Automatic annotation (TrEMBL):
Record keywords, A-Z: Coiled coil, Periplasm, Signal
Cellular component terms (Gene Ontology): periplasmic space
SUPFAM superfamilies: Periplasmic binding protein-like II
Entry superkingdom: Bacteria
Similarity-based family: Belongs to the bacterial solute-binding protein 1 family.
Native source organism of the sequence: Roseibium aggregatum
Coiled-coil features, chain-numbered ranges: 368-425
Localization per Swiss-Prot or TrEMBL: Periplasm
CDD domains registered for this protein in UniProt: PBP2_UgpB
InterPro entries (alphabetical): Bact_solute-bd_prot1, SBP
Signal peptide: 1-23
UniProt name for this protein: sn-glycerol-3-phosphate-binding periplasmic protein UgpB
Amino acid sequence: MLKSTFLKAVAATALTFSTWASAQAVDLQFYFPVAVGGKAADTIQELTDAYVAQNPDVTIDAVYAGSYQDTVAKAITASRGGNPPQLSVILSADMFTLIDEDLIQPFDDYLTSDEDKKWVEGFYPAFMENSQTGGKTYGIPFQRSTPVLYWNKEAFEAAGLDPEVAPATWDEMVDFGKKLTKKDDSGNVTQWGVRIPSSGFPYWLFQGLAIENGAILANADGNKTNFDDPKVVEALQYLVDLSTKHEVMAPGIIEWGATPKAFFEGQTAMMWTSTGNLTNVRDNAPFKFGVAMLPEKAQRGAPTGGGNFYLFKGASDEQNKAAVKFVQWITAPEQSAKWTIATGYVAPRAETWETDTMKAYAADFPAVLVARDQLDFAKAELATYQNQRVTGIFNDALAAAITGQKDAETALKEAQAQADEILSEYR
């Protein structure tokens, strides 16, 4: 009887403590976007649930907010309405916009120990270019990427090309593309040589061409663009020529979202898209495929891309501390490895690649290393103040040239003039 009474008392105490702990839990909400196919949303939820299970003093509501554009719009709207999330994964390129809107605060106030500072230094420098400004850290790399080239090895073999060798230069991509473009008896193209999307994120994939030609689209301070640089004009002319002159790519605007499916279905033998599509391609391509760095012109090069964690203003000190701890946990090697394997996004810290998990994965699937190694040649994604407006202007200029409404030089000169008008006040 005494033992039974004692056990009931212990159980009641535990229940009371559990109820109290739940009542005292720090509530966090974070928004996250999904811009690629595959398991990204499910994996985010699994990781969040795992953290909450290990940390019962925190509750986290992970809200799938749509595309990157949807997510930043929702975060801004919620903040202006007085109900901001504590955290959000938003494009690294939107850092200046979020600062200008006075919506985010630097992580530095909560990363004060030597260990914390060493943790920040552990992220790849290429990713930190779009994460720090004015000596402060505003973004923590998480859902980060570079574009890479995917090729269909079976299509290469059928065209008489070495299935293990991707085009390494712009000229080679044209030469390969001509051999890979197939037509039926009526002259209709059944397989294009290459597909570079020009919707969704046209500036991002185009930026790969610009960097390879030795051009930088914007300065590090986010207040000056170089859209009319002759090297940028030359890069855009090359993109247009792939369709109009060389006839190795479909004419007109090419859809971002439909590109992996077109690749799977044999409508194109090569495609440019995010490494964040890597697991999607591995799971769904019905043929052997390869992954390579983007081909070079004057140099190798690619933009970094993807999303950072941002710490929003309006949270309590307790919420901020809890949010930072969660970010440190989800970017730690074990969790980061799970995220990379599930999606193809680049683990943003070198230590993740040294884990037994990632070493084994890379040994089995070497393609996962391509985007990481390309970071040695990568530059910051186009990022400016009023980034949505500026990139919108640039995207319109690209579309005008691609659809033949304007020549490349005119389109880019007009875009530069409009960008100057917007950014001059920030200089």
